[in-house]
Amino acid sequence: MIKWGTTFGSHDGALAVFVDDELVFASDAERFSRKKNDPIISDSLIEFAENNWGIPDEVYFYEDLAFKDARREFAGQQPLKKIDFKYPVRYCDHHLSHARYGYWTSPFVDCTVLVVDAIGEWDTMTQWRVLNGDFVRVRGWKYPKSIGLFYSAMTQAAGWKPNEEEYILMGAAAVNGNPSYREYVEIRNLWNQGKNFHKGIDINLNRFEIASATQKVYEEVFVEIIREIDDENLVFVGGCALNVSANRFLTKYNTFIPCNPGDGGSAIGCVIDKKLPATAYLGYEIPGKYPVVDIVRNLKERGMVGVAKGKAEFGPRALGNRSLLADPSILNMKDKVNKVKGREEFRPFAPMILKEDVDIYFESGIPSPFMNTIRKAKPVTIKKYPSIVHLDGTSRLQEVTEEPYRTLLAEWKKETGCPMLLNTSLNVKGEPIVNTEIDAKNFQSKTGVKVL
Question: Which residue of 136, 224, 240, 249 could cross-link 116, Cys pair, CB 3.0 to 4.6 Å?
Answer without folding.
Answer: 240
